[in-house]
Design a protein that fits this description.
With 291 residues, the protein is an alpha/beta fold. It has one domain: P-loop containing nucleotide triphosphate hydrolases (Rossmann fold, 3-Layer(aba) Sandwich), CATH 3.40.50. 37% of the residues lie in helices and 10% in strands. The strands form 2 sheets. Strands 4-3-5-6 form a 4-stranded parallel beta sheet, with helices on both faces. A hairpin with a 2-residue loop joins strand 1 and strand 2. Helix 2 packs antiparallel against helix 10 and helix 9 packs across helix 10. The structure holds 3'-phosphate-adenosine-5'-phosphate sulfate. 3'-phosphate-adenosine-5'-phosphate sulfate binds next to helix 2, helix 5 and helix 11. The site of 3'-phosphate-adenosine-5'-phosphate sulfate has 22 residues, from helix 2, helix 5 and helix 11.
Length: 291
């Protein structure tokens, strides 16, 4: 049941991928934050890359500021996975980062309400299914081809980034410590324009109607999928099996129904549903459900 040590290591109860190191993640506590820093924070497969693209488009006014040819991963690098060995202290302000860290492992300054955090959640059945497919594509992740087994590992938090529930519960119950905006994948899917405006408002960026239209247009699933910089197509060959998928896979609400059996769905509900009800977030499980 334990995840393979070849793929993850544990630090303070949280599983990290081996592309980073224990010393580095431990050092992040002291990572200095500027007031203008913005972090996109998620449990994996909750809409991180999507939000990265939206935030980048907003901050760079639809890419007109010379970032047209820069990959998303370089415009908004991963805090705990500095795979390109960038010097984060020297990035131009405002710095933008993505992270899967739980609330208790982020830089101390963030906990003192410096910088801003956009925390995105998604219904956990879709998260799990997306994660299952992603593990086949990402060669750095442990391969668990049996979906039932994958589900048990996911429910037990024995995967990279540990327990979905702990992640979301932790961030929700410590929201007061942070300068934080909560968004859901489903609200972005159902009304992208309103989500874009919420982010603009939170980061203090005023865009014209046309600029907002342009962000919305460039952040649709179809348009992002066509854009190699937004679809993470330039990741090193030893990290991804390009014939086995892509970062942007289906991009919808309720895909879990295509893979989970009734028995699996019931088992999932038995473990998580009651606990989910105590969260301050309303999860949307089907594309037809109202927000
Ligand atoms: S990761 O690896 O943690 O960074 O993955 P993450 O980006 O958080 O989540 C990947 C899922 O987000 C979907 N996605 C989108 N959906 C709708 N619209 C847009 N523009 C979009 N961009 C990314 C992506 O397809 C993954 O979900 P699934 O269900 O696998 O398709």
């Amino acid at each position: 049941m334990e995840p393979s040590k070849e793929h993850v290591f544990e630090y303070k109860g949280f599983y990290f991928g081996v592309e980073t190191s224990l010393e580095y993640v431990a050092s992040l506590e002291d990572f200095e934050i500027n007031d203008s820093d913005i972090f996109i924070t998620t449990y994996p497969k909750s809409g991180t890359v999507w939000t990265q693209n939206i935030l980048s488009l907003i901050m760079h006014e639809g890419h007109r500021n010379g970032t047209e040819n820069v990959d998303l991963i370089d415009r908004i690098p991963w805090l705990e996975y500095n795979i390109k060995n960038m010097n984060y202290a020297d990035l131009p302000l405002p710095r933008l980062f993505a992270t899967h860290l739980p609330y208790y492992l982020v830089p101390r300054d963030l906990r003192n309400r410096r910088g801003r955090i956009i925390y995105v959640t998604r219904n956990p059945k879709d998260v799990m299914v997306s994660y299952y497919h992603f593990s086949k594509f990402m060669t750095t992740l442990e391969q668990i081809p049996d979906f039932n087994l994958f589900m048990e590992r996911f429910l037990a938090g024995k995967v990279l980034a540990s327990s979905w529930l702990d992640h979301v519960t932790g961030w929700c119950s410590h929201a007061e410590d942070f300068n934080i905006l909560f968004l859901t994948y489903e609200e972005m899917k159902k009304d992208l324009r309103s989500a874009v405006l919420k982010i603009c408002n939170f980061v203090g960026k005023k865009l014209s109607e046309e600029e907002v239209d342009s962000v919305v247009r460039q952040a649709t699933f179809e348009n992002m999928r066509k854009d190699p910089r937004a679809n993470y197509e330039n990741l090193p060959d030893d990290m991804v099996a390009k014939d086995k998928g892509s970062f942007l896979r289906k991009g919808t609400i309720g895909d879990w129904k295509n893979i989970m059996t009734v028995a699996q769905s019931e088992r999932f509900d038995q473990v998580l549903k009651e606990k989910i009800k105590t969260l301050p977030i309303k999860f949307i499980w089907d594309i037809k459900d109202e927000i």
